[in-house]
Design brief:
This protein has about 475 residues and is of the alpha/beta class. It contains 14 helices and 22 strands. The protein starts with a strand and ends with a strand.
Length: about 475
């Protein structure tokens, strides 16, 4: 049996792991988009792939099954391309993951179509003389590929052992992090010997808004573990309600200003809106307008509402008392682009929640561009920002930011809180690994993290008695 790391190896995004059983059955765990690229070119240069012109470093048609840990695009975003390149099998995931993935992939297809139209227009008859024709990116899947992919999703229940092939079973275990997110357990027998491989997916936090705590993964022989926060701890000095209320008071009440919160539409925005609903329900704040500027977030919130039984006890009780998780009197959903842009003319203090969380495109980029030189505006970053993104540059204190083709002076206040991060910190990761006996566990593979985080977490695990800890490079294969 072989395990090859084709994504999220010594970086955070692009999760994709190929498990090849001795009977030639090939399982792909996650198939995510890579936001830290030079990606495909670097992959072709650094690895000995036999498919130098393909999007994937393997024949898509050779894969027998895909297992999906959760809906986020860095785990699911390349699935339609897999079908376009010849994959004909199923996608196994939980029911909530299917619902959220459908929303994200359909939205990605719409954005891809817009990008394709822009490229085709640039290549049209009015192209300036001597200007090089733009190549069409190979990763721009459209609605047709998304529809084909979604028709092949098979939702499975948590904690139910499911046979996928002769002598091979999978089990999805709750991971926290996001509605429907799972750790995946793969059990297989080779020459009469049982081998068990665990894939962490993204590990959630204890006590996160709306979500249940991560479940327990039974003993495995090999563990693939994320390490996003492997070198740091979350600030646990306060609750999400108190942390958010403090920021709102300072930025919208003490000084009548504007608060912009870049937030991922799926997961993070639901935690934010739920927390704001609790704050307003308890009458802790005056009626400041909250603009939720993401149609994607609205759709995702409906999925959460339909899956109340999958949420934690506190959220279920709040819903029973208030008949809603996310809607409150001062909340306004902005559906159209015109409505989004008109918020710039709102003169009263307000809160704008918009995607994407890293300030990488999306409507939030417009809001940031309009307010980056406004000293009465605060931009509150609430999660991980990949290196090179606008969010990352803001967090690193750049005085001038190039945004939408213009250099803008940064006069807005930049703040960060991590109480809404959906990733477990070092202690959460340690707790997850400690479910495994150091004497039984044969090897740990660290993925989904930046190099310093991985090295620090490896040192932590080694000091705890976990001796065989690997940090794979992209394309590296291990015999299990």
């Amino acid at each position: 049996m072989k395990l090859t790391f084709w994504g999220a190896a010594q970086q955070v995004t692009g999760s994709m792991y190929l498990l090849e059983l001795d009977n030639d059955y090939r399982i792909l765990v996650d198939c995510g988009s890579d936001f830290e690229s030079g990606d495909r070119k670097r992959l072709q240069n650094e690895t000995d792939t036999p498919f130098p012109n393909a999007l994937f470093p393997f024949e898509a048609s050779s894969i027998n099954l895909v297992l999906l840990t959760h809906a986020h695009i860095d785990h699911s975003g390349n699935i339609p391309n897999l079908y376009r390149d010849g994959y004909e099998g199923q996608i196994l995931c939980t029911d909530s993951t299917y619902s959220l993935t459908a929303i994200l992939l359909k939205d990605a297809a719409i954005l891809n179509q817009k990008r394709l139209n822009e490229i085709n227009n640039a290549n049209g008859p009015k192209r300036k003389k001597g200007k090089k024709k733009k190549d069409l990116p190979k990763d721009l899947y459209l609605e047709k590929q998304v529809k084909e992919a979604l028709e092949n999703f098979v939702p499975l229940a948590f904690n139910r052992r499911f046979k996928v092939a002769d002598d091979c079973f999978v089990t999805f275990v709750p991971a926290g992090h996001l509605l429907g997110a799972a750790h995946i357990l793969v059990e297989t027998w080779e020459n009469g010997q049982k081998k068990v491989i665990g894939f962490s997916g993204d590990i959630g936090r204890q006590g996160y808004p709306l979500l249940n705590d991560p479940g327990t993964l039974s003993q495995v022989d090999y563990l693939v573990c994320e390490s996003t926060y492997g070198d740091r701890l979350h600030d646990l000095k306060t609750t999400p309600e108190l942390a958010l209320e403090d920021v709102i008071r300072r930025t919208c009440i003490d000084i009548p200003g504007r608060l912009i919160i870049p937030s991922f539409s799926v997961g993070r925005t639901q935690a934010l809106l739920y927390t704001l609903n609790k704050i307003y329900t308890d009458n802790h704040l005056p009626p400041i307008k909250v603009f939720a500027d993401s149609p994607l977030a609205f759709e995702s919130s409906r999925v959460y509402q339909r899956n109340i039984r999958m949420l934690n006890r506190e959220a279920r009780e709040f819903y029973e008392d208030n008949e809603t998780l996310f809607d409150f009197e001062n909340l306004i959903y902005l559906e159209s682009t015109d409505a989004s842009r008109s918020v710039s003319n709102h003169t009263e203090p307000c809160i704008i929640i918009s995607s994407s969380g890293m300030v990488r495109g999306g409507r939030v980029e417009y809001h940031v561009a309009q307010n980056i030189s406004n000293p009465y505006c605060t931009i509150l970053l609430i999660g991980y920002c990949a290196e090179g993104t606008l969010g990352w540059r803001l967090l690193n204190g750049q005085n001038t930011i190039r945004i939408r083709g213009k250099d803008e002076q940064v006069l807005a206040n930049i703040e960060k809180i991590d109480v809404f991060s959906g990733h477990g910190d070092r202690d959460d990761l340690v707790k997850f690994v400690q479910q495994q006996s150091p004497t039984t566990l044969k090897k740990i593979f660290l993925v989904h993290g930046e190099a310093p985080s991985m090295e620090a977490f490896k040192n932590t695990l080694t000091s705890m008695g976990y001796e065989n800890v690997e940090i794979p490079v992209k394309g590296q294969t291990f015999e299990l």
